Amino acid sequence: MSTPYQQQAQAPQPPTPPQPPYQAPQQQPGAPGMPAAPQQAPHPQAQQYAPQQAPQPGMQAAPQQAYASAAPGAGYTSPIPIRRTHLGNALASEWTKIKSVRSTIWTLSVMVALVIGIGLLVASGTKDSDYSSTPTTIPGLFGTLLGQLCIVTLGVLVVTSEYGTGMIRTTFTASPQRSRVLTAKALVFFVVSFVTTTAALAFVAWVSTAAHSGPGVQEPTSKQLVGATLGAGLYVSLLGLLSLAVGSMLRHSAGAITAMLGVVLLPAILPAFLMMSSSLQTLGEKMQKYSSPQSLAALFQVDDSLGTGWSQVGMLAGITAVAFIAAYALLEKRDV
User: Fold this and answer.
1) Over the stretch 273-300, which tens digit does the pLDDT of each residue have?
2) What Rg, from alpha-carbon coordinates, does the chain have?
3) Are the beta carbons of 285 and 267 closer than 8 angstroms?
4) Helix axes 87-100, 178-211, angle to 10 degrees
5) CA–CA dist 245, 249 (Å, integer)
6) Burial (Cβ within 10 Å: 0-12, 13-18, ≥19) of residue 98
7) How far apart are CA 308 and CA 10, in angstroms?
8) E strand or H helix that includes residue 44
9) pTM recorded for the entire structure
C-alpha cells in the first residue's frame, strides 16, 4: 500500500519548456554604471613579430626592437677568417688524399721494387764485356717495362677511387670548381710519380755504372744518362697522366685500367701481325715505333737506329693533352 507521497512521486510530471540562454545586456565600454572589462596583456614575444606601422603625422614613433636582433643567431660573427680559395688549397687537399691512401703507398712500393729489384738483378748477372756496345744504364729498362703498369694503375685509382666510394660528392661540394680539382689531382700525381720513378732509375743507373767500369765498357754519355733517368721517368709519368684522364672520363676503376692496358700492350703486339701484310706494313712500323717498349728502349738508347726517344715523349704528351681536354669537358657537363 503506497502512501500519498509515493503516489505523488509516481505521477507523471509535465515537460519543462526549454529556457533561452542568458544573454547579458550589451553596453558600450565605459558606459555609466558598468565597469570596463579588464584587458589581457599581450604575449611578450608577440611584440617582436608584430608588423611595424608608420607613425602618424605629428606623433612620435615608439621605440621598437628590430626583428633581426630578436632572431636567434643574428649578428653572430665567426672567428674563422673568410678568404677566397685558390689552387694551392686544392693542391694541399689532394696531397693529403694521395699520401693517406694505402693504395698509393702499395702501388709505388711495388713499382720501386720492380725497377730496382729487376735492375740490380740484371746488373749483377751481366759482365763487363756485355756493355761493350751498349751503355751501362740498360738494366733499368727491364724493371721499367713492368713498373709502368703500376703507375698506370695508380693514375686510374687517383680519380676512380673517389667515384667508387662516393667521396667525390664531398670533394665537389668543398670545391665547386671541378676543373680546379682535376688540375690539382694531375699536378700532385705527376710530381709524385715523376720523382719516384726518376729516383729509382737514377739509383739503378748509378749502381750499374759503378759495378761495370772496367776496360772496354761503354761509359754512358750525358744524353744517355738523361734519357735513362729523366726521359724514362717523364714518359712513365705522362703515361700515368693519360690513365688519370681516362679514369676521369670513364669513372670506373676496372674499365679504365682495362682500357689503359690495351693502350700499353696492343701497340706492342699488333705490329707483328700488321707487318705480315704489305699494305699494312707502314702502319705496323709506325705503331711499333711509338709503342711503350720501343719508346723506352729508344730513351735508354739500346740501339742508335731507334733514335733518342724524345719524339715518342712528345707524341705521348700530345695524346695526354687531348685526353685532358675531353676530361675537362665531360667533367663540367655530367653530374657527379
Assistant:
1) 888 888 888 898 889 889 999 999 999 9
2) 42
3) no
4) 50
5) 6
6) buried
7) 132
8) none
9) 0.74
